[in-house]
Amino acid sequence: MADAAPAGPKQVVYCGVCSLPPEYCEFGGTVKKCEEWLKEHHPEMHSKYYSAEAIEQNMSALSVDAQKRAEKDAQKKAAKAATAEARAQEQRATSKVVIKRIERNKRKYVTAVQGLEHFGLDIKKCAKDFGKKFATGSSVTKIPGGGDEITVQGDLSDDILDFILATYKSVPEDNVDCIEDKKKKAAG
Amino acid sequence: MFKKDLTSSSKSKVKSSAQRAIRARILETYPLLEPHIDTILPKKDQLELVKLPDRVSLYTLNNVPLFFQHMDDAILPHLTLVHKYPDCFTRLRIDRGAIRFVLSGATLMAPGLTSPGGRLPGDEQDGEGRYGREELEAGEVVVIEAEGKENACFVGVLKMGTAEMKKVKKGQACEAGHYLGDGLWGLQFG
């Protein structure tokens, strides 16, 4: 309980897994992972919070009945967190980034990129990056089916493919599709 | 207030006059912050306003969240700020059993504060006066700490005076505010 001296702010370590201060990890639902993380990064804190006597002390503060309930609750929470993570991972595995070349006016093209948001990327930032890299207009536009896509001026599908793979390591190569949109011409 | 995950929308710069007003208001609400205000909110630095759903505005400085405010209600500190300057806020403590409810976004109930593990102002077991001596009125901003933990886990507005709480020992104690792990906590800036 060291009081912060009036001189400066108190530094608080936050868990890299659940983002809470480590002492609250036990309520986060990802206790196992948090514990491992803490052991790796802050061993001295790990021994403080996860020692046998600390756990025992925590337990003794509650009545048996409340303990049981808390445990049940914690289990439920953990299960929920696990399924949520599994789902996110699955989505990451199945979702695709689509790079589409759209013909705008005979020899003019725009390139549309969809699906980057599934890989934890901020598409607004990506659009900015594309624009900077290729020195063209690049914007985030809403698509009729809902959601957003990045529209880059010019035929850049191959370059964008390379750029995405080089810069955003979280996107696996197999999940990027490069297609040419010809339907638009036929329809219009 | 922030039970759901948030998506921050527009970020805009705060006018320097508005910034001065905010600063004055913060000092008025939290006089104890006075010695630190220049570190938290340097006069020259550009404060930014992030609009959140439900008319909540969040003030950030260099992408570090500092305070948030719902319409014109009391201006509340973000928990990261509370963690940095724990001594500058009025604090209460809840018992261990209540932590998990608070962290899942429940309204704070009085028994969590009145039970042996909890601390209200003027508690006999609180030797150093960590939790204050004066009784608090409803409507005051409090930071909630937890039994056996160092850091605060909740920020909110009192719904019931502490004196009444000690008498009644029932009912809602604190309006839903900002708790560890909520949408505001998880919000990413960049």
Descriptive report:
- Chain A: It is found in: Cytoplasm.
- Chain A: GO terms for molecular function: mRNA binding; translation initiation factor activity.
- Chain A: Keywords: Cytoplasm, Ribonucleoprotein, Ribosomal protein.
- Chain A: Its main location: cytoplasm.
- The complex is a heterodimer of chains A (188) and B (190).
- Chain A is built from 7 helices and 5 strands; from the N terminus they run H-H-H-H-E-E-H-E-E-H-E-H.
- Chain A has 2 domains: 22-93, no CATH class; 95-187, SUI1-like domain (Translation Initiation Factor Eif1), CATH 3.30.780.
- With 188 residues, chain A is of the alpha+beta class.
- Chain A has a 5-stranded mixed sheet.
- Chain A is elongated, with a radius of gyration of 25 Å.
- Chain B has 2 domains: 11-84, Sulfate adenylyltransferase (Roll); 87-179, Sulfate adenylyltransferase (Roll).
- Helix content of chain B is 24%, strand content 25%.
- Chain B is built from 7 helices and 11 strands.
- In chain B, the strands form 3 sheets. Chain B has a 5-stranded antiparallel sheet with strand order 1-2-3-4-5.
- The longest helix of chain B has 14 residues, at 16-29.
- The relative contact order of chain B is 0.18.
- The chains are: A alpha+beta (188), B alpha+beta (190).
Assembly type of the shown chains?
heterodimer
Would you tell me the overall average pLDDT of chain B? 82
Low-confidence stretches of chain A: 1-7, 184-188
Largest interface: A-B, 28 and 28 residues
State the strand order across the main sheet of chain A.
3-4-2-1-5
String of helices and strands of chain B: EHHEEEEHEHEHEEHEEH
The strand count of chain A comes to 5
Name the helicity range of chain B: 10-25%
What are the low-pLDDT stretches of chain B, counting only 5+ consecutive residues below 50? none
What is CATH's topology name of the largest domain in chain A? Translation Initiation Factor Eif1
Which percent range fits the helix content of chain A? Answer: 40-55%
